[in-house]
Design goal:
Strand content: 5-15%
Largest sheet: 3 strands, antiparallel
Number of strands: 13
Helix content: 40-55%
Shape: extended
Number of helices: 11
Distance between the termini: 31 Å
Structural class: alpha+beta
InterPro entries: Endo/exonu/phosph_ase_sf
Order of helices and strands: HEHEHEEHEEEEEHEEHHHHHHEE
Length: 336
């Protein structure tokens, strides 16, 4: 934050804290030592951190990406926030020369190799401005908040926003967790996994052939509505809770394997192991196919079995489609 020694930046920071009430505040690259005493209005809001700067040369930054990747190996909720000093794509810069493609490639490799998601999708499009006049002015999105899948698992409604810029060439970033209730009127979706079940055709035919007395023009619509209810009930009866079903099957397989340790030459136990493993594989195939459909992944990834990847794609798509606030004509923002 430029001019952090002066009073005005602290007053702006105090306004942000009062409005958003964060659990912690961090000032990145202040180029000064932390003050001996913080303003009283800021102290009560929790942890206050000062993070020093790094070299901006992309060759040196590779060491930073490698160091951060090592930190990300721990399978825990993880967020990386700050000024990365590089854009992830050319559209994130307006004005100036074309960004360094090598540095941009290194940054994207860091993001993809750690399966990070950019949660900074609200507020201003660009987070930095060189504040020059005329054609020499340049805007970039170099500040952002990247989170991993575990972070999204524990904070599914996580959002971060780029706020307006005032006393610095960088914009502040604020993040929070939104809780949007699951709607009760979820639209009906035909699941691709149903096609593979041998009884689907029989269920559809039986429902369709049931007599229904009404005008011919309304019969088809009513039959479709009835079939939708039948398919929902049939799906729950056949597939049930997939995660719970898998857990039960894994437990049964574990018991079979333990029995084999006591009686290793029992052919009946060998057959039970094969049958149970086949049953588990069938349930997993249904789960993967359902996740692929939810993620709306194309057939180019046919055969892909990484369920975490499909979960991440689905969460990203849902995050983009959700409405978390509405702004009226007077500029007032309505949030949940």
């Amino acid at each position: 934050m430029r001019g952090i020694r002066r009073q005005n930046p602290w007053m702006y920071l105090e306004d942000i804290v009062k409005e958003y009430q964060p659990e912690f505040v961090c000032i990145a690259e202040p180029l000064i030592r932390p003050p001996a005493q913080l303003p009283l209005a800021l102290v009560k809001w929790g942890i206050f951190g000062f993070v020093g700067g790094r070299e901006s040369a992309y060759g040196i930054r590779r060491a930073l990406w490698a160091e951060l990747s090592q930190l990300g190996l721990a399978v825990k909720p993880w967020a990386v926030v700050g000024d990365f000093n590089i854009v992830s794509e050319i559209s994130e810069r307006k004005g100036g020369r074309t960004p360094c493609l090598v540095a941009m490639s290194d940054f994207n490799s860091f993001i993809h190799s750690n399966a990070l998601i950019d949660s900074t999708t609200m507020g201003f499009k660009y987070s930095w401005c060189n504040k020059r006049m005329g054609y020499r002015r340049m805007y970039q999105k170099i500040d952002r908040m990247l989170v991993n899948q575990r972070w999204m698992d524990v904070s599914a409604g996580w959002r971060s926003r780029i706020l307006k810029r005032r006393h610095s060439d960088h914009c502040p970033i604020v993040g929070w967790n939104t809780k949007i209730p699951k709607p009760s009127n979820i639209p009906f979706r035909f699941k691709q996994a149903w096609v593979q079940h041998e009884n689907l055709r029989e269920v559809v035919e039986r429902s369709w052939k049931e007599p229904l007395h009404d005008a011919p023009i309304r019969k088809v619509v009513k039959k479709l509505k009835r079939l939708k209810i039948v398919l929902k009930e049939w799906s729950w009866r056949v597939y049930g809770n997939t995660k719970q079903h898998l857990k039960e099957l894994e437990g049964e397989l574990e018991n079979i394997l333990k029995e084999q340790e006591q009686d290793p030459f029992n052919s009946k136990l060998h057959n039970q192991e094969v049958e149970k493993a086949t049953e588990i594989q069938a349930v997993k195939d249904v789960e993967i196919l359902t996740l692929r459909q939810k993620a709306r992944v194309t057939d180019a990834l046919e055969g892909e079995r990484n369920s975490k990847y499909f979960h991440a794609i689905t969460k990203i798509r849902l995050a983009k489609s959700q409405i978390v606030e509405i702004q009226d004509d007077q500029g007032n923002k309505l949030t949940q």
